[in-house]
Specification:
The chain is built from five helices and six strands. The chain has about 160 residues and is α+β, with helices and mostly antiparallel strands. The protein has a three-stranded antiparallel β-sheet with strand order 1-2-3, with no helix packed on it. Strands 5-4-6 form a three-stranded mixed β-sheet. α2 crosses α3. Its cofactor is Zn(2+). It holds the Pfam family Zn_ribbon_NrdR. InterPro entries: ATP-cone_dom, NrdR-like_N, RNR_NrdR-like. This is Transcriptional repressor NrdR.
C-alpha cells in the first residue's frame, strides 16, 4: 500500500475494524518514512455472471430496481427494499463464493421477498421460476397458504405451552 502523502511503497497497519454490516474492513495505516497516518477500506469483491457470460460487480441497487417492479402498487417502502437488498447481499456473501450466476441472485431474493410481501413474491417468482400456466401460480399460492397455516399452528402451540 503506497503512502498517499510521500508515495513510499510500504505502510504499517496500526488498527483494523470491521464495518457495521461486516462487508468491509477499515484499516488505519502509518507510513514508516513520513510517519503520517491514513485509512484504507478493504472489501471482498463479489461478481455476478449474467446469462450472456458477461461478469459485473454485484450491486444492491440492481437488486432494489429488480424487486421494485414486483412491488409496484404494494405497501413496500424504499427502506424495506434497502433492507431486503442488504439481506440478499449478506446471504450471498455467506455462501463464500466470489462469482455467482445472475439466476442464483434471483433465487436468493425470493426468501426475503416472501417475508416482505407475498404478492410481490409471486410476481417476482413468476419470472424467476418461469411460471408457464395458471397451475404454476396456483401451486405457488397453495404452498404459501400451507406455510402460513403451519406457522399459525406453530405459534398457537407455543402460546399454549407458554400458558401452562
Amino acid at each position: 500500500m503506497h503512502c498517499p502523502f510521500c508515495r513510499h511503497p510500504d505502510s504499517r497497519v496500526v488498527d483494523s475494524r470491521t464495518s457495521e454490516d461486516g462487508s468491509a474492513i477499515r484499516r488505519r495505516r502509518q507510513c514508516p518514512k513520513c510517519m503520517k497516518r491514513f485509512t484504507t477500506i478493504e472489501t471482498a469483491s463479489l461478481s455476478v455472471v449474467k446469462r450472456s457470460g458477461v461478469t459485473e460487480p454485484f450491486s444492491r441497487e440492481k437488486v432494489i430496481n429488480g424487486v421494485r417492479k414486483a412491488c409496484q402498487g404494494r405497501p413496500v417502502s424504499d427502506d424495506d427494499l434497502a433492507v431486503l437488498a442488504q439481506k440478499v447481499e449478506e446471504s450471498i456473501r455467506s455462501m463464500g463464493l466470489a462469482e455467482l450466476d445472475a439466476y442464483e441472485v434471483g433465487l436468493t431474493i425470493l426468501g426475503p421477498l416472501r417475508e416482505l410481501d407475498e404478492v410481490a413474491y409471486l410476481r417476482f417468482a413468476s419470472v424467476y421460476q418461469a411460471f408457464e400456466s395458471l397451475e404454476d401460480f396456483e401451486a405457488a399460492i397453495e404452498l404459501l397458504r400451507k406455510e402460513r397455516e403451519e406457522q399459525a399452528e406453530g405459534e398457537a402451540a407455543e402460546a399454549g405451552s407458554a400458558e401452562q
